[in-house]
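agent> step 3/5: call structure_predict on target 'Arginine utilization regulatory protein RocR' (Sporomusa silvacetica DSM 10669).
agent> reason: downstream docking stage needs a structural representation; sequence fetched in step 2, passing through unchanged.
tool.input:
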Amino acid sequence: MPKDKPKKLEELIIENRLLHEIIDSVSEGVYAAHKDGTILIYNRAFERLEATNRQNMLGKKDTDVYSLPLENLQRMAVLQSKKPLLEQYMTYHLHTGRKVDIGYNCYPFFVNGELTAVYSINRDIPSINDLLTKVVNCFDQNKSKNRPNGTIFSLHDIVGVSPLIKQAIKQARKIAPTASTVMIYGETGTGKELFAQGIHNASSYSSHPFIAVNCAAIPETLMESLLMGTVKGAFSGAIDTPGLFEQAENGTLFLDEVNSLSVPLQAKLLRLLQDKSVRRLGAKTERKVNCRIISATNQSLYEMASKSLFREDLLYRLTPVILHIAPLRERPEDIPVLAKEFISRFNEQLNLNITKISSDLLELLSLYEWPGNVRELEHVIESAMSIVENTATEVILEDLPSFLAKRMLSNLSSTKSNNTSAAEIPPGKMLAEYLRQCETDLLQNMLKLTNGNVSDSAKQLGISRQDLHYRLRKLGIKSTTYKIECTK
Ligand SMILES: Nc1ncnc2c1ncn2[C@@H]1O[C@H](COP(=O)(O)OP(=O)(O)OP(=O)(O)O)[C@@H](O)[C@H]1O
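tool.output (status=ok):
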């Protein structure tokens, strides 16, 4: 390979200026020091964080500007370990007397294999702490749910008639009374939290709290304090707060989207599950905890583990029992009953009296792929019902906001008929009739291609056999007809 041409001095100067401007525009404090302690980089955000001017810092020795024992300097810790220091907290005083609380990650910088400098990315802890308080308050508000244990749903509230959902409910009933750790696997919006609440309410843990945390929604810096809790003085403003593990004592802790936990946090969670004890942030001792863990993922953890994105040992801890919730497109029989359920929920909320859903709207709902699953169906019904007249008793296709109808129709045309766009629907033709014809043509063509083989057809169409059988029944198509035709 040809070697890169050495950069001209001019280019290097421009690149250096650009990098400095970038560093100055990020919201975290960026700091770098030579291994001898000379401060090399000190960006604007760090000036704000330490309420000082970089002129007072750049080129100075860290020991001259920070009133810290030598061993407490970020630099010394990294020089010693030669490894990054992640998710650390520190309170210290500047020579000006100002007290600073930061959360930071600090990294070694090697030149030709020699550790030459350290640099760190720093965040203001009081703001993290404020956020933590807000998150905890938000969880508290969520607790004002129907039941005192913090849940709304039981397994009886799960709506569905498809064999797939019935099978999932049956399995949930079976595992609920055991103390097993459960992993719920399913696409977004399929009802994983609903099942988790249902399992909790059908278990011996039900008189104790159900605590849910969405691992994807909480910043990583907060997650540890949220899960483990804090003790007064762990960092400035920290108070004695039990973590979610302690709050779920004798109950269930639901770790939603557990696939988004960072690898360092996975290690902490694993240790906690092994020891069954937590050490609050800043505490010297551990406390025993006893709660059932139900977690949920919308990504295959096995696949993630094979790419080293999820720890295998944690995976096995979390998955003694796996409950799979099928996506809505694989159980279209559930669509009409779910739509009915949501209509009755929104009747109550919006003070309406809808008793029917028009056949063309139902047809569209049945043919759509539902990438957002049941949650998306719920939103579509809600959108339609916010438009209907107060006196209406039926919700119809025209009640769908046009952007929604368009989106749903184009999804249909691209995935089902693959040759007609939403704009090309023949004018004057009833939508339901048109969609039915499209689906009939598509299924008949596919059966012809596969000599009436339902499994092969389902595979080609990217749907389950059950789904295809359901659609064939609904359209009155007999797969056997195609077998006979082809063997003649
Ligand atoms: N079978 C069902 N019967 C009744 N309601 C359902 C059903 N499945 C899902 N829902 C409703 O759909 C919405 C989404 O469900 P839920 O939050 O449990 O999904 P999820 O899989 O946990 O989503 P996410 O992956 O985004 O966390 C909720 O309002 C829930 O009540």
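agent> step 4/5: record observation. The pocket of adenosine-5'-triphosphate is lined by residues 158-160, 186, 188-194, 256, 296, 298, 338, 341, 374-375, 378 (CB under 6 Å).
agent> proceeding.
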